[in-house]
Structures are given as C-alpha cells and as structure tokens.
User: Fold this.
Amino acid sequence: MNPKKRAEIFRRLKEHNPNPTTELVYRTPFELLVAVILSAQATDRSVNQATAGLFKVASTPEKMLKLGERRLRSHVKTIGLFNTKAKNIIKTCGMLVEEHGSKVPEDRAALEALPGVGRKTANVILNTAFGQPTIAVDTHIFRVSNRTGLAPGKNVVEVERKLNKFVPNEFKKDAHHWLILLGRYTCVARKPRCGSCVIEDLCEYKHKTED
Assistant:
C-alpha cells in the first residue's frame, strides 16, 4: 500500500469520526489504568459495568488499597481472569503510592514495570490519558492492519512498528482509536461489513463482502 492511499484512509476515518476516544468509562488516568488492566480478554462493556460501582468506592490508589484485594474481587468477579487482575491492581496501587506519589507515570518503562501492565496497556495509557502518539495493537487493530494491507505483520510488535512508520504524523495520535473502532464494528472477524465501510475502495482485502 502506497503512502497516498494510507493518508487517504486516515483522512476519511477522521472525517467520519473527528474526535475518537476509548469506549472505557473513566475520569482520571488512574481510573483508565484500572479499566485497561481489567479489559484484557474482556469487553469494554463488561468492564464499564464493573467499574461503575468500583470507582464510586475506590477512585484513587489509596482508596483501592483500603478496599483490599478480597473486596476488589467482588466488584470485578464478572470479568474474566478477575483473581489475577485484582491481585495485579492492588500491587500496582502499592507501587503508585510508594514510587510515583500516587500518580500514574507518563513514562513507558515506569508503566510497564507495574503489575498487569504490558506494552499494549502502556500504549493505551500514554495515548488516551496523556495524548502521546502511541498505537496499541490489539486483536482488532492486528486484523485490520493485515486485512486492509495498511500495515501487515506476523505479530503485534511488527504491526505496531509498521503503523508507527506508515501512519502520517498528523493522524498518529488518534490512529489507535480509529482502527480499533473500525475492527470492532465494521471490519469484524468472521464476516467484515465491507459494504458499509468508509474505506472499502482503498482496502486491499481480496474477499470483500456486500454487507
């Protein structure tokens, strides 16, 4: 795919959705961090349902530590892997209080040192909470990047590297959200809805559908 076509893809995505953002509900970088940790292998909807009650009683690292792991588990038990996630969140809160003045760090290395935070989660936090032009590659973005020909790669690291290289700078800050929404609602896994896609004529997928 040539640079002109890539630029047009993002121009259309921006025109269609000028101010994209995450579908996770949060008010602060800390709440976003907790929500993203919980969202691994879970839907944003299920996370939002759980955090609606959780954030009313524990919206800071100190309050989360006071809540404790057992009560945290009761708030998030509807989410997959909730035992491990609860344990990681409590450990992360301890580190935030002890090492970062209860603030979520704006540094990748510091974020990835937190329990339950990998490269993808760090990218989401850096981009969504702090406005950095990072691109977190999840299953949706991996699929869209390969299927469209935008940034094909054999693994998420390769796709992320290519997206960082190929996405024009003016679109990089919002690219993550545009691509994840495209993959979640239009370029779906089983049968993509090509007929309703705003970039259908630019996409290089060979098995387009009429839906």
